[in-house]
Specification:
alpha/beta; globular; Rossmann fold; 8 helices; Elongation Factor Tu (Ef-tu), domain 3; disordered C terminus; 28% strand
């Protein structure tokens, strides 16, 4: 079988290429040149968490040379900026907290992989993601990785049958320890001092997106920070720089108890804060809902589990939906359900679908009689 392998130059993708070659496949490598922040401080451009620097390029070339396979390099900087980064910034400007990796995998990465695979007459594409794809009745199922500590199925949750049917994930049944053992066996150079795994948001040089956002969102307007009953506590520096659940950096000291951002009202340029219990909710509204393998019957409750962040625990509940919108009611309250983030639905270890958490500014319209106890019974 002829397989196109996405090669970032990291350990995982390098091991995938070696494994497939050892199994007798006709392997072709490809590397994407992605947009890099031209405004970032110089020191951040040489951090070992980047997937598009000179070191990772050299590593990918070295692996391909030893395997005797070609390495194609595609300059996709402009398309990456338009498809991933511009929507990322637009979402933050609207008071949302997006997950760009979920968007990137379907709308950018796998789109280009499948296009090139067809051009090069490859039968499958392969990546170093930790997740599993198995064939089941009704199509291909996406499952969590065997190594739950490295599971990346959340980030692949928007893939359709088109992508799943054409993809191999050789590391899905392996642990990270096994991958490193294979890297050693395949003589893949890994310097434990200087090598670190790439971070989730590959185009953000720093550990968090805060500095990146401030470089590219320069017209943010200050506004009030209020309690749920309307009292002003301070002034925020701009809607894009805050997210649901945030406690640090609010600059509103003197509170008897710590407070968190519980609602971002973009329309009125207001941020509402409250103690942590106000972050609890029993349900979330969903838009852009899609199912991975088979769609349940509409307007009928679906019992499943859901994850509202990549590393959050799965919580059982009930989904009701119509077309591409729905409501998920949790059996037990969850904290800090954040508009813009992906909610992923599971049946056991299989991802059955998911969507995006909808924005809701209902807190900003509450009267002074509203209490935190009432907040916990409503969707954020």
């Amino acid at each position: 079988m002829r397989v196109l392998v996405a090669m970032s130059g990291g350990v995982d993708s390098s091991v995938v290429a070696c494994l497939l070659k050892k199994q007798g496949h006709d392997v072709v490598g490809v590397r994407f040149q992605l947009w890099q922040d031209p405004l970032a401080p110089a020191i951040t451009k040489v951090l070992p968490t980047k997937c598009c620097d000179a070191q990772t390029l050299a590593r990918a070339r070295n692996v391909c040379k030893r395997l005797g396979i070609p390495l194609h390099t595609l300059d996709l900087q402009e398309d990456f900026k338009c498809t991933v980064i511009d929507p990322f910034l637009a979402a933050y400007r609207s008071g949302l907290t997006p997950n760009p990796c979920v968007l990137c995998n379907r709308s950018f990465k796998f789109k280009h992989l499948l296009t090139l695979a067809k051009k090069l007459t490859c039968d499958k594409v392969a990546t170093g993601h930790y997740a599993r794809i198995v064939r089941r009745q009704g199509g291909f199922a996406l499952l969590e990785a065997s190594d739950k500590s490295k599971d990346q199925s959340y980030f692949l949750s928007r893939l359709t049958q088109k992508e799943l049917s054409a993809t191999l994930l050789p590391l899905g049944t392996r642990s990270k320890r096994e991958t490193y053992a294979l890297a050693k066996a395949f003589r893949i150079a890994v310097d434990p001092v200087h090598y670190r795994e790439s971070q989730d948001i590959c185009f953000v040089p720093e550990k968090s997106p805060a500095a990146f956002l401030r470089r590219y969102i320069t017209n943010a307007t200050r506004g009030p920070i209020r309690t749920l009953d309307g009292n002003k506590l301070g002034t925020h520096q701009g809607i894009p720089f805050y997210t649901i659940g945030q406690r640090r950096g609010l600059r509103i000291g003197g509170q008897r108890r710590p407070v968190h951002v519980v609602t971002i009202d973009q329309k009125n340029n207001t941020i509402f804060v409250a103690p942590s219990r106000a972050l609890l909710t029993n349900n979330v509204s969903i838009h852009s809902l899609a199912f991975t393998r088979k769609q349940p019957r509409k307007n009928r409750p679906v019992r499943c589990t859901a994850r509202i962040r990549a590393r959050s625990r799965k919580v059982r509940g009930t989904l009701t939906f119509s077309h591409h919108t729905g409501l998920f009611r949790f059996d037990h309250p969850v904290s800090a359900a954040t508009p813009g983030q992906a909610i992923v639905l599971y049946s056991g270890q299989e991802i059955i679908g998911g969507g995006l958490i909808s924005a809701n500014n209902s807190h900003s319209r509450r009267q002074k009689t509203t209490t935190s106890a009432r907040i916990t019974r409503r969707s954020l």
